[in-house]
Specification:
This protein is mainly alpha-helical and 231 residues long. It starts with a helix and ends in a 43-residue tail after the last helix. Helix 1 runs antiparallel to helix 3, helix 4 packs antiparallel against helix 5 and helix 5 runs antiparallel to helix 6. Helix content is 72%, strand content 0%. It has one domain.
Length: 231
């Protein structure tokens, strides 16, 4: 198999893995990680939350792998843009990994909440809300890192015609609404207990900032990796 074809096949497989893992984590976590009573729900569904966190880790790794697998092909057309894409997608994966680690820590905190006496619930809930806020910001930062990384290799693909220009052009055009959605989420979402809102999903090329309800659910299912943004 030719090296370019092997790289394309690897990137395609990783893209599918990243997208499927992101959608799976969102579907598994959303019923549990939403609402003001999320700690009590997590305490009764620890395996479910853990599975969602592991799926987030898989999606993060696959997302970075896409840029790495494409690098040998894209560097022949533009080494600077190809390297930049790898760097930003690695930053994206790091932010998603941070969010996944927080997700995996929530079952332990939820068990402490369930075992604590009522007077101690307030302090534990405050910790949970703080972790939720950090998780939200980490995922939002990941999406913001995705945008320049994806635009870099979309530009290379457009100029080199390695894929149909309409396809890479679609990815370039999608960058602006994703950026607007991210900035809107960054400057509009409230802080504090019960105000954890989903940020733009990771993804393919479109995304929306969602809010209004207390939620720890993963946003990436909303943008889908440019394909929540694996692509």
């Amino acid at each position: 198999m030719a090296p370019d074809r092997r790289a394309a096949l690897t990137a395609g497989v990783l893209f599918i893995i990243a997208t499927a893992a992101s959608l799976l984590s969102y579907a598994v976590e959303r019923p549990v990680l939403t609402g003001p009573g999320y700690l009590a729900k997590i305490a009764g569904n620890t395996s479910r939350v853990t599975a969602g966190g592991l799926a987030e880790l898989a999606a993060a790794g696959a997302s970075a792998g896409i840029a790495v697998s494409l690098y040998p092909v894209l560097r022949k057309r533009s080494q600077g843009l190809a390297l930049g894409a790898v760097i930003f997608r690695a930053l994206e994966a790091a932010m998603y990994t941070a969010g996944a680690v927080i997700t995996l820590s929530l079952p332990t905190l939820a068990r402490q909440y369930a075992q604590a006496a009522a007077p101690g619930h307030g302090g534990i809930r405050a910790i949970g809300d703080a972790l939720a806020g950090v998780r939200q910001d980490a995922i939002l930062a990941g999406v913001l890192a995705f945008i320049p990384g994806a635009l870099m290799y979309y530009c290379v693909l457009y100029r080199s015609r390695l894929v149909p220009r309409w396809l890479s052009g679609w990815g370039i055009a999608a960058g602006l609404p994703i950026l607007i959605a991210c900035l809107s989420a960054a400057f509009s979402h409230p802080r504090g207990p019960g105000n954890v809102r989903s940020t733009p999903g990771r993804s393919s090329g479109t995304g929306t900032a969602r809010g209004g309800r207390a939620s720890l659910s993963r946003p990436r299912a909303g943008l889908r990796h440019g394909a929540r943004l694996p692509g």
